[in-house]
Write a structure and sequence with these properties.
By secondary structure, the protein is an all-beta fold. It has two helices and 30 strands. Strand 24 and strand 25 form a beta hairpin.
Length: about 425
């Protein structure tokens, strides 16, 4: 493997109400990962395997079959393993609703993909979860964390470790559409014409036993990404909510023990939109603080906002909202991780013009610094996908979809430290 260093030009730019820049020791340097056998396909995601490196997953489609693949990299970007998680001909492959992998406290890997549940239901698909106890060499028989049996949407999944061999899985669930109109041959899950979309969760153990099946919110936005994080003995989920008046702002819910608390709105953005914007939030927790990063629409323009809090309760009770001041209009598609004593945020800018994978660092004093783009994938619109990022606080990896030299879809990767 060879690596070529990307020159990162840092631009000093402050956030309104902050007025300073991050410390130099929090500025990451990025280096492109170039593998001898480059991953081909799309819908990448990345997970941290603590003390080992990163696990990147992506989907590739050939003829009538799609596969979910993995590659392991150490903290120097060197490949240490590679394999296929699963392959099928009836998968639901979507630019925004993407598979992922989580590493559990006991070292198990848990991955998921989406599988159509009825050819006549274009919006009907199920979550399929598998587990590896030997770091990707073998995988268990797939199971679904939902047991409603409806031919509706089950997707936009988040997964986090939940202690020992347990994994907490959350997803957007369209089962109420089937109950509202049992004679319908086509439930329009994404536009809520039949019934509200719900947000649900369950816990799976090493024996694929499902427990703690709970409803988190009985009416959520239908196709925005969700995100979860652990904070001490609690779990936090952030997602785009939806009211009867079509206000689709970001909400957070806390899980203590086996119960979810009532969802609360992070900030009163007041974004009213008749359809789903397909643009969810991100959450990151580290060094005793948590932050939520999200896109919203203000004065006819997409805007990126964030909040930082010192405790789970403070995060759920309206901390001060901050807004990134950007030289180019963003498209959103955000992610966030801990970085030193602060946070690192990524997003896509100008996806309809000249898209770029952008980055900013937020330090412990609340100071923001923006960097030059990590990459310009030469893709447009939906093809730019959703860059994903993982970090142990000192080292990280960003992944994104892009075009290869021959125009084929490939996965771009960059280490930062």
């Amino acid at each position: 493997m060879k690596m070529s260093t990307l020159k990162l030009l840092w631009v000093l730019l402050s956030v309104l109400s902050v007025g300073a820049v991050a410390h130099a020791d929090s500025r990451p340097t990025f280096s492109r990962v170039e593998l001898s056998e480059r991953p081909t396909g799309g819908q990448p995601s990345v997970a941290l395997e603590r003390d080992r490196g990163f696990i990147v997953t992506w989907q590739s489609t050939t003829q009538n079959a799609t596969s979910l693949n993995w590659i392991a990299l150490n903290f120097d970007g060197q490949q240490t393993g590679r394999g296929v998680i699963a392959r099928g001909s009836n998968w639901f492959v979507n630019w925004a609703d993407i598979p992922a992998l989580a590493v559990l406290d006991n070292g198990d890997w848990v991955a998921f993909w989406l599988e159509r549940n009825d050819p006549s239901m274009p919006e009907g698909y199920d979550i399929r979860v598998v587990r590896s106890t030997d770091r990707g060499a073998t995988w268990s028989t797939p199971v679904s964390p939902h047991r409603d049996g409806t031919k509706t949407q089950h997707g936009f999944v988040s997964m986090i470790a939940a202690g020992s061999d347990r994994v907490l899985v959350s997803w957007l669930d369209g089962r109420l559409a089937a109950a509202a109109n049992p004679n319908s041959s086509s439930h329009s899950a994404h536009d809520h014409e039949d019934a509200p979309m719900t947000l649900r969760s369950a816990v799976l153990n090493r024996d694929n036993q499902i427990s703690e099946e709970l409803a988190i919110d009985e009416q959520s936005c239908s196709c925005c990404q969700t995100d979860m994080a652990r904070w001490g003995d609690q779990s936090m989920i952030v997602y785009r909510d939806r009211t009867d008046e079509e206000i689709r702002d970001i909400a957070v819910a806390q899980r203590s023990s086996t119960r979810w608390g009532l969802p609360k709105r992070i900030h009163d953005d007041g974004w009213k939109i008749e359809g789903c914007p397909v643009n969810g939030p991100a959450i990151a927790v580290g060094n005793g603080r948590g932050m939520v990063f999200w896109p919203t629409f203000v004065d006819d323009q997409m805007t990126l906002r964030y909040v930082v809090a010192e405790s789970p309760d403070a995060l759920a009770n309206g901390p001060r909202m901050n807004e990134l001041q950007l030289p180019a209009a963003p498209s959103g598609r955000v992610d966030a991780v801990t970085w030193h004593d602060g946070f690192l945020m990524t997003w896509i800018s100008r996806a309809k013009d000249r898209p770029a994978v952008e980055v900013a660092v937020l330090d412990a004093q609340g100071r923001i610094e923006l960097g030059a783009p990590i990459a310009e994938p030469a893709l447009r619109g939906r093809s730019t996908g959703f860059p994903r990022v993982a970090s142990d606080g000192k080292r990280g990896l960003v992944v994104w979809p892009e075009s290869g030299s021959d125009g084929s879809p490939v996965i771009g990767m960059a280490l930062f430290r």
